[in-house]
Amino acid sequence: MRIRKGDKVIVLKGKDRGKTGEVITAMPARNKVIVDGVNVAKRHQKPTRSMQQGGIIDKAMPIDASNVALVEDGRPTRTRVQVASDGTKTRVSKRSGGEL
Predict the structure, then answer these.
(1) Secondary structure (3-state) at 19
(2) Residue range 24-37: average pLDDT?
(3) CA-to-CA distance for 56 and 42, rounded, in angstroms?
(4) Which of 9, 38, 76, 87 could pair covalently with 68 via S-S, beta carbons 3.0-4.6 A apart?
(5) Using only C-alpha atoms, what is the Rg of the chain?
(6) Sign of dihedral through CA atoms 95, 92, 62, 6?
């Protein structure tokens, strides 16, 4: 999975298609990401010590990583990994060839 926490992504499939947001959490083992403001569901929350007020809250739910793409200049792009001569790996945009 080439998407990391903090990346700007655009949703390619589903009810939130076309929305952009920042990755809050990446879950490589499950191949899922949580994007800010995308795939939001209503959840009932009981009052707890940390959250005094209970009620219905909006919670961002995971979305499959294959349904999002990195954004470069407002357009989706694919990525590849480039290995430097000293062995370090960097993510490179296929659209422009620039480093991400």
Answers:
(1) coil
(2) 96
(3) 6
(4) 9
(5) 17
(6) negative
How far is it between the farthest Cα atoms of the chain? 55
68 pLDDT above the threshold of 90: yes
Percent of the chain past pLDDT 70, that is, above it, reads 100
Tell which residue, 97, 91, 96, has the closest CA to residue 2. Answer: 91
- What is the domain-level CATH number for residue 65? 2.30.30.30
Judge whether 94 and 80 are in contact, CB under 8 Å: yes
Residue 58 lies in a domain: yes
Q: Domain range holding 14?
A: 8-73
- 51 has a pLDDT exceeding 80: no
Q: Of 74, 79, 97, which Cα lies nearest the Cα of 2? A: 79
Establish if 80 belongs to a structural domain.
no
